[in-house]
Specification:
162 residues; 7 helices; four-stranded mixed beta sheet
Length: 162
C-alpha cells in the first residue's frame, strides 16, 4: 500500500504491537487501495515497550535502505502477524520481505533512525497524541480504530473541506 500523491493526506501513527493498529490495518489498506486520491503516510510511534521500539526501528531502516515498496510489504507483514512480535519473528519477516538483513539492522541501530524516532515522538507530543492508532486526516485527528465505512465518511468530510 503505497500512495505517495493525493489531494488528501492521511497520516497514521502506529505501533506494530498495538492490537487496535492491527485491527485497523486491513481497513486502512482497503481504504487507501480504493481511493488513489489519498496520500498515505505512516509514522512509527512505539509506545508498548522494547519490542515495539525494535519493530519500529527495523521498519524505518527498511524504508531507508530499500525504499517504499519493500517497506510496505514488511510493514504489512508485521501488522498482519497475529502474535506478539519478537526479535526472531521480526528477523524472519525481514528476510521474507527480501530485505538485506545486515544492512537493515545496521541502519536500525543508527543515530539517523534514532533522530527519526525522536522527531516522531516530538510531533506526537506537540499535537497531543497519546495512543495508537491515531489518524490525521486533513485538519481532523481521529483517535483509535474506525471501521472502513466510518473512515470513508471522515475522508469525504475532509475532502469537502479542501
Amino acid at each position: 500500500m503505497v500512495n505517495t500523491v493525493g489531494t488528501l493526506t492521511i497520516v497514521e501513527f502506529i505501533d506494530y504491537q498495538c492490537t487496535y493498529c492491527k485491527r485497523a490495518h486491513p481497513e486502512v489498506t482497503a481504504l487507501v487501495a480504493a481511493d488513489t486520491d489519498i496520500r498515505y503516510v505512516v509514522k512509527e510511534l512505539p509506545l508498548l515497550g522494547p519490542a515495539s521500539t525494535a519493530a519500529a526501528r527495523v521498519a524505518m531502516a527498511v524504508q531507508d535502505v530499500h525504499g517504499a515498496e519493500i517497506y510496505a510489504g514488511f510493514s504489512d507483514a508485521m501488522m498482519r502477524h497475529p502474535e506478539r512480535l519478537t526479535e526472531p519473528t521480526i528477523l524472519t519477516l525481514l528476510e521474507t520481505a527480501g530485505a538485506d538483513a545486515p544492512a537493515v539492522l545496521a541502519r536500525a541501530r543508527s543515530s539517523e533512525v534514532t533522530a527519526q524516532l525522536n522527531a516522531t515522538r516530538a510531533l506526537a507530543n506537540a499535537i497531543g497524541l497519546t495512543g495508537t492508532p491515531t489518524f490525521v486526516m486533513g485538519d481532523r485527528m481521529v483517535r483509535g480504530f474506525l471501521p472502513r465505512a466510518e473512515m470513508e465518511a471522515v475522508v469525504a468530510e475532509a475532502k469537502a473541506g479542501l
